[in-house]
Design a protein that fits this description.
The chain is α/β, with parallel strands linked by helices. The chain has a domain at 15-204 and 236-265 and 303-325: NAD(P)-binding Rossmann-like Domain (Rossmann fold), CATH 3.40.50.720. The protein has helices at residues 24-36, 76-86, 100-105, 107-129, 170-189, 211-221, 240-253, 270-284, 314-320, 328-341, 343-349, 352-363; strands spanning 15-19, 41-46, 66-70, 90-93, 140-146, 193-198, 200-202, 225-228, 234-239, 259-262, 267-269, 296-299. The strands form three sheets. The protein has a seven-stranded parallel sheet with strand order 3-2-1-4-5-6-10, sandwiched between helices. A three-stranded mixed sheet has the order 7-9-11. Helix 4 runs parallel beside helix 5 (170-189) and helix 6 (211-221) packs across helix 8. The longest helix is centred in the first third of the chain and has 23 residues, at 107-129. The N and C termini lie far apart (43 Å). The model has no long low-confidence stretch (mean pLDDT 93).
Amino acid sequence: MSDSSDLPVLHAPRSVLVTGGAGFIGSNFLRYAVPRMTEARFVNLDLVTYAGRPENTAHLAETGRYSFVRGDIADPDLVRALFDQHGFTTVVHFAAESHVDRSIMDPMEFVRTNVLGTTVLLDSARKAWRRDDGSFGDVRFHHVSTDEVFGALGPEGLFRASTPYDPRSPYAASKAGSDHLVRAYAHTYGLPVVLSNSSNNYGPFQFPEKLIPLVIRNILRRDPVPVYGKGLNVRDWLFVEDHCSAIERILTRAADRATYLVSGGEERTNIELVHTLIELVDAELDRSPGASRDLIQFVTDRPGHDFRYALDGSPLSNDLGWRPSRDLKQGLRDTVAWYLEHREWLEKADDDRFRSYYQRQYQGR
């Protein structure tokens, strides 16, 4: 990771509210940030829905600077009480319903969490942080978003921070709405905010509804590996710890109201990615090369499936000196190794809720 020692610190977190810290990216961020940001205290607020795992970060309580609260970001009384109790100077907002397929089946929950929940957080921060003269001190709201707000790309080109929004799924639309609300609170009230939109994350602790852990899980079990359509949709992949380092850089060093796109710079078609995972998992399990290729099962494509996402990460590199530390092949090796070493984590995720969803989504829709 690039050195940021020559960049001025524009925000110094002291009391940090992390929303969605029992989820995939949020728990990885806490595991990354708590040991590094030793002057700060952290509160993890998470409702613990199907993909939440508080045990991912339970060990951080040993630092004396971390605590967990089970609760809903859309509950204004709870959120305001936490601001009063902990005197937050910083919000890092991950909490969101995030799976496109689930948003197609149940869009209302995505609007409630991603739009209403974000508004509750913003309004609580505004009321807690705004001084009598209308100014704000050294406080900051970092909103973590997605590349999916921009819509879809053809075979060439990149999304930039200035790209007009064109969300194509209920999930993407709900995240676009939350992005607009964050900027509206900055412009209307002067709330100090920064935003980041990232490409597809992968790595440890990702719930196996997502492509990479799902493929690893199914190869282990010799279950069918579902691939939408012909597997030609393209995504840019970012190792989750690299994303966490980018968030820390933007949170502490970016100018107020800045937006940065966080890109792994690693585009692959879905079928290319699946073939790579089969190669890696088969090698780790001492199976013959390509032994699991016959598990691939092409399934009916997702409605409105965007063809390609890719982000221009050069402003983040040029302005803040950040670059990813892992290429995709190394990141996938590390990810496969983690899941094979933590098979019990996959087993815990494989409960009745997941099995029911999996059967509807890939085997019976």
